[in-house]
Design brief:
Elements (H helix, E strand, L loop, with lengths): L1 H27 L9 H11 L4 H8 L15 H16 L1 H7 L2 H30 L16 H28 L4 H11 L2 H13 L5 H22 L2 E13 L2 E12 L6 H17 L9 H10 L5 H22 L2 H10 L2 E2 L7 H33 L7 H33 L11
Antiparallel strand pairs: 1-2, 1-3
Length: 437
């Protein structure tokens, strides 16, 4: 039982290490960029609210953006460059070959990090230039001493903050419970949820929100969480027949299943759709007030604000497009059909090779349709029912539930392996001086 006890101790260490690094992440997120007036920036966003791309960045940075913290960019630049290289692998054969080779994957990871630094420098310099224009309602400038020195220092600081987050995520992946990048995004979103709950309770106490409205809001969130949790674990089992063979008097092969997730695209379609819709609205905020185009851009900004009819229509259409675009990247039908043929396996009633790929493509299109419909319902319907925007949005909810499910599955698999090992040893089926068999 000593080895079983050792596995439990290992699990405890993983949990403690993951928690410790997430605490470090939250502490670093409180450190502001040098040269920022904390009170002025707090007053500015309290009055204006940001809107557009600002809210999206702030959500995934755990509130670090609106504090102009050293982690204001969050981990999103790395995710963006990773997606770009994934897309390039679909159109450039050389990159696709590198993705299938272990050494090639290391090179792509190195290129991804270099591209992340470049993107962070561009975004950091642009963010510094934008924040220099912000003025609080009291007339105080958010950046008291603007200029080239501030922009360069901010650019370097924000790039270093993102790379620190990337390093932190890699340590969590190596020694923790789950993919570190996913857990960092999870922590950034989860830490903002208590603020939402407090705001709703405050509105109810002040009489600005009725009891029925508050109950409806809570019920919608609870139901949405259960629906997301169910769909995230739902998959279609595709039967696969392996050719039987005898090795050392043992028979290998037989019937198995190939799982295909209902939500094949995952959380990326709503993230990409939100980014595309937020860009025009955010750009409109930078148009000078005396410009002749200002009224037109203000109209666009108001129409594309979350909850508006035009926003919901375009958001739903982009989710459908991104789902069909991103699902084949996640579930590579050609690679799977080649792998099945190589291992002398086939889907009953379907010929190996191209016919198998066509069959998998058909199933993937059907799953993508239901996946896109599910994402539209989760991301749009709750706001329509409650009539208000919330941090418990569809994209945030998908990330929270999916990461939580994966963490619980990792813990369960660890516990099951421990129980199996203990049961196996209790029957005496192990090597040693006291073995029974």
């Amino acid at each position: 039982m000593s080895n079983a006890h050792g596995r439990l101790e290992e699990l405890k260490k993983k949990v403690f290490f993951t928690f410790l690094l997430l605490v470090v992440y939250r502490l670093v997120a409180q450190i502001p960029v040098p040269g920022v007036d904390a009170q002025a920036i707090s007053s500015y966003f309290a009055e204006s609210g940001g809107g557009g791309l600002f809210d999206l960045i702030n959500t995934f940075s755990g509130g670090a953006f609106k504090r102009f913290s050293v982690l204001a960019l969050g981990i999103m630049p790395y995710i963006t460059t990773s997606i770009i290289f994934s897309l390039l692998g679909e159109v450039i054969p050389q990159i696709q070959e590198m993705q299938e080779d272990s050494e090639g994957q290391k090179k792509i990871q190195k290129w991804t990090r270099y591209a992340t630094v470049i993107l962070c420098c561009i975004q950091g310099y642009s963010m510094a230039a934008v924040f220099e224009t912000f003025v609080s309602p009291g007339g105080a400038r958010v950046i008291p001493d603007p200029g080239m020195l501030f922009r360069v220092v901010t650019m370097i600081t924000l790039a270093a903050g993102t790379m620190f987050l990337l390093w932190l995520g890699e340590r969590i992946t190596e020694f923790g419970l789950e993919n570190g990048v996913s857990l960092i995004i999870f922590a950034g979103i989860a830490v903002e949820l208590p603020t939402e709950v407090i705001q709703k309770i405050t509105l109810f106490r002040n009489g600005e929100m009725g009891g029925l409205e508050l109950l409806t809001f809570a019920a919608v969130i609870v139901v949405a969480f259960f629906v997301v949790a169910f769909i995230e674990r739902a998959f279609r089992a595709i039967p696969v027949q392996y050719a039987k063979r005898v090795v050392n008097n043992r028979v290998y092969g037989g019937n198995q299943t190939l799982p295909m997730r209902v939500d094949t695209g995952g959380v990326m379609p709503p993230i990409l759709a939100s980014s595309l819709l937020a860009a025009p609205a955010t750009f409109a905020t930078f148009i000078p007030a005396d410009s002749a185009f200002k009224p037109y851009f203000d109209t666009i900004q108001q129409s594309l604000y979350p909850g508006q009819l035009l926003f919901n229509i375009l958001f739903g259409a982009l989710i459908v497009y991104m789902t069909y675009f991103y699902a084949p990247i996640q579930f590579k039908t050609k690679k799977i059909s080649e792998m099945l043929q190589k291992n002398n396996a086939f889907i009953p009633g379907i010929r190996p090779g191209d016919k198998t790929k066509e069959y998998l493509d058909t199933l993937l299109n059907r799953m993508s349709f239901f996946g896109a419909l599910f994402l539209i319902v989760v991301c749009i319907v709750p706001s329509l029912i409650t009539g208000a925007q919330t941090r418990f949005g569809g994209t945030s909810m998908l990330i929270l539930v999916s990461v939580s499910v994966r963490v619980m599955m990792n813990v369960q698999s660890f516990m099951f392996a421990d129980k199996y090992e203990s049961s196996y040893k209790s029957k005496g089926k192990y090597n040693g001086n006291n073995r029974r068999f």
